[in-house]
Design brief:
Layout (H helix, E strand, L loop, with lengths): L19 E4 L2 E6 L2 E6 L4 E7 L6 E4 L3 E5 L4 E6 L9 H6 L2 H4 L12 H12 L3 E2 L3 E2 L5 E7 L14 E6 L3 E6 L5 E6 L4 E6 L5 E6 L3 E9 L16 E10 L14 E6 L5 E6 L3 E6 L9 E6 L10 E6 L6 E6 L4 E6 L4 E12 L2 E13 L6
Parallel strand pairs: 4-8
Antiparallel strand pairs: 1-2, 2-3, 3-4, 5-6, 6-7, 7-9, 10-11, 11-12, 12-13, 14-15, 15-16, 16-17, 18-19, 19-20, 20-21, 22-23, 23-24, 24-25, 25-26
Length: 374
């Protein structure tokens, strides 16, 4: 096991969207204003970029890494040109002085692998990024969406970043250019928003009790002259409905109000939303605007308490719709669809013994899904 000593922290007690793993073995995270990647297979660490602001959220895909911060700070970093293999042989054949890491303490340079790691971090392709201003207040969350060839003409044709801001706006940006394509105004502070895998839905959760659902619809065009050429249709996000979430009340003004965790399954079949009261709701994403879209709701291991507030949640990649959520005390809740119209929920606990981590399950709860069709 290799340990990396970091100064990573989140100074905002509700925001925990700071770690992203878009590929097998690759993890991105902030260390102060530096963005670091770790390859768990090669056990190498690399400095990707240095930001001009302290990140409050981070998300990455295979091609892009985006960060948001206070006062609308936003940056997008291209990862496309960073995948070239590192030439270890040329490094070892180079001048010995060029191979020395800045840390000259011999007790900390245990082997040549550590020296290569230091070289990549210090002499690699790190850069200082340029930040944009998206919105007026703190960027609470960023999610990424990319088009596929089999999607409809209504969806975006370029990869986009969905930026949730505390100024009650959702901004959809062209990731490559940082140009704002559309901006949505919501009634309360926006904590998280995301586009469905098929590009047809945009959902958002705020500090109020609701899940907001937008659909991709044709935009009304001004009347054309008789002989004017037909224009290509233009589409926009239109509010299609809202759902009051379980355990949420409009009169609630406590610190427990609102939701911060939301995720579509990779298949696009499910949408999971979790509240600060520790309630997770699973919706049928294929009929989200219907009255019977809620499939099941269940609690995490510590519902109704601030310590049990769900801060982060995501579905696993691949064919299995495995849902993992994390609360304020870093307790993990694992849930899955077992294909028998049941939703199985496990509450693992973590314990540390002699610098090793052991995962033990404290139980398995099953909640039957209602039999209904949208």
């Amino acid at each position: 096991m290799k340990h990396h000593l970091l100064t990573r922290y989140s100074s905002h007690w509700q925001l925990r969207s700071l770690i992203s793993s878009p590929e097998q073995d690759i993890v991105y995270f902030p260390n102060g204003t530096d963005i670091i990647s770790i390859n768990s297979k090669t056990r190498e660490r690399e400095l990707i970029a240095s930001l001009t602001f302290l990140p409050r959220c981070l998300v990455a895909s295979k091609d892009w890494l985006c960060c948001g911060g206070d006062n609308g700070n936003y940056t997008a970093i291209s990862l496309k040109n960073r995948s070239a293999a590192f030439d270890t042989s040329s490094f070892l054949d180079s001048d010995p002085d060029a191979r020395l890491p800045l840390d000259l303490d011999p007790t900390r340079r245990t082997n040549i692998g550590e020296m290569i790691d230091a070289y990549r971090r210090i002499r690699g392709r790190a850069m200082t990024t340029h930040s944009e201003k998206i919105g007026a207040e703190i960027v609470n969350c960023i999610t990424l969406w990319s088009p596929r060839d089999d999607l409809s003409e209504r969806v975006y044709k370029v990869p986009v970043a969905v930026v949730s801001n505390n100024d009650c706006t959702v901004s959809i940006l062209n990731v490559a250019t940082s140009d704002t394509l559309e901006t949505l105004k919501l009634p309360d502070f926006v904590n998280r928003s995301a586009i469905s895998p098929d590009g047809e839905l945009l959902v958002a959760i705020c500090d109020d009790p609701f899940l907001y659902i937008h659909k991709r619809m044709p935009k009304a065009e001004p009347r054309r002259e008789r002989f004017e050429n037909k224009r290509s249709p233009v589409y926009q996000w239109v509010l299609a409905g809202r759902i009051q979430l379980e355990s949420q009340r409009q009169a609630d003004r406590s610190q427990m109000r609102g939701s911060f965790a939301l995720s579509f399954s990779r298949s696009g079949k499910y949408l999971a939303v979790a509240t600060q009261y520790g309630i997770i709701s699973i919706f049928d994403a294929e009929c989200l605007t219907e009255t019977q879209s809620l499939m099941v709701s269940f609690t995490t291991s510590r519902p109704g308490r601030q310590a049990g507030a769900v801060r982060a949640m995501d579905f696993s990649p691949g064919p299995f719709d495995l849902l993992v959520s994390m609360n304020s005390l870093l307790r993990c809740n694992v849930s899955r669809d077992d294909s028998k119209r049941y939703f199985a929920s496990e509450h693992p606990t973590y314990s540390s013994h002699s610098e090793t981590m052991k995962l033990t399950s404290t139980g398995l709860d099953r909640v039957k899904w209602p039999s209904r069709h949208c």
